[in-house]
Design brief:
Layout lengths: L4 H9 L27 E11 L10 H19 L2 E11 L4 H17 L3 E9 L3 E11 L14 E5 L4 H10 L6 H12 L5 H6 L6 E4 L4 H12 L2 E5 L7 H4 L3 H10 L6 E5 L4 H11 L3 E8 L3 E6 L2 E3 L12
The structure holds adenosine-5'-diphosphate and magnesium ion.
Adenosine-5'-diphosphate binds next to helix 1, strand 2 and strand 3.
Pathway: Cofactor biosynthesis; thiamine diphosphate biosynthesis; thiamine diphosphate from thiamine phosphate: step 1/1
Function: Catalyzes the ATP-dependent phosphorylation of thiamine-monophosphate (TMP) to form thiamine-pyrophosphate (TPP), the active form of vitamin B1.
GO molecular function: ATP binding; magnesium ion binding; thiamine-phosphate kinase activity
């Protein structure tokens, strides 16, 4: 039996009454969704697209792809300190494959439910596999975490263990080899990133600037520095190194840490006086954070390794240059 456009939408992307979060005044299935933020709040909105061959391998498990498609979008809300409300899904599919759709929608909606984020609409077309998601969240009016608030003297922090997703990607590419256990662990990080939504919420009013790390730590830090009109000094030995990472040669460890990307950790700054509040926020969110540098008035990036200057040989990912 062939699956038509409307069967496909109602079977995989509409929830039966009483199932899934209900956040919108008018949800999926009408011409438009209608959604209202809580009083005193603004809507935070972000879009990310995943293209087969660019952002994921054609062999990836569809449930994991569903998870990751929403995770990268929730990560943007996390970086703004926004609470997820809902999302739309623009799905372009080469064919209506029920088994694939079943897995994809399961992974997608499980993460949506975990974050109380309702699928409020979308669009479905035929074409090369592409997943476009627009996510909406709410922030207290004037309270979004932005990229422009870093000031000289503020401390630089990162959550989790950056670099692991890139380890898996390089193992897939065959440029390095990992033990079976390390491959499994890093592959989970690459295919199933955990958006740091709870941390973003806990950092409201504490962090001065924030961004999520998708294109590499140094590249994404560059966005904060430019927007804030400041520079930074980094102590690379203070960056957290996962067990998998420490089993790689030292030079490659730095490559993964500084230019890896795809980890969806939060990179943020906070005044030195807020040090204890940052640690409390991280504990509340159940995520480890590490301070690894500070903001300077002098523009540019100064990299240090055990106090010794390190030349910056890393560039961040750019779709039109890669
Ligand atoms: P319209 O022609 O009004 O744009 P569509 O026929 O594209 O409507 O979609 C019908 C309904 O199904 C709309 O409410 C739309 O939001 C929803 N929808 C379509 N595709 C998806 C999808 N991939 N995921 C979730 N909802 C979808
Ligand atoms: Mg439409």
């Amino acid at each position: 039996m062939s699956l038509g456009e409307f069967d496909l939408i109602s079977r995989f992307f509409m929830r039966p009454e009483g199932q899934g979060p209900r956040r919108a005044q008018v949800g999926n299935g009408d011409d438009c969704a209608v959604i209202a933020p809580a009083p005193g709040h603004h809507i935070a909105l972000s879009t990310d697209t995943l293209v087969e061959g660019r952002h994921f391998l054609s062999t990836v498990d569809p449930a994991r792809l569903g998870h990751k498609s929403l995770a990268v979008n929730l990560s943007d809300l996390a970086a703004a300190g926004a609470r997820p409300l809902g999302f739309t899904l623009a799905l372009t599919l080469p064919r209506a494959d029920a088994t694939w759709l079943e897995g994809f929608s399961k992974g997608l909606l499980a993460l949506a439910d975990a974050h109380d984020c309702e699928l409020i609409g979308g669009d479905t077309t035929a074409g090369p596999l592409t997943i476009g998601i627009t996510v909406l969240g709410e922030v207290p009016a004037g309270g979004a975490l932005l990229r422009n608030g870093a000031r000289p003297g503020h401390e630089l922090w990162v959550s989790g263990q950056p670099g692991e997703a890139r380890l898996a990607l390089e193992a897939f590419r065959g440029t390095l080899s990992l033990s079976t256990e390390d491959f499994q662990a890093t592959r989970d990080r690459m295919e199933c990133p955990a958006p740091r939504v709870a941390l973003g919420l806990a950092l409201r009013g504490v962090a001065s600037a924030a961004i999520d790390v998708s294109d590499g730590l140094l590249g994404d830090l560059g966005h904060i520095l430019r927007r804030s009109g400041v520079g930074a000094t980094l102590h690379t030995e203070q960056l957290p190194r996962s067990a998998c990472l420490t089993r790689q040669p030292a030079a490659q460890q730095l490559d993964m840490l500084l230019a890896g990307g795809d980890d969806y950790e939060l990179l943020f700054t906070a005044p030195a006086e807020a040090h204890a509040q940052v640690l409390a926020a991280a504990q509340q969110a159940g995520v480890a954070v590490h301070r690894f540098g500070h903001i300077d008035a002098e523009p540019g990036l100064r990299l240090l390794d055990q106090g010794q200057p390190l030349a910056n040989r890393w560039t961040s990912f750019d779709h039109f240059r890669a």
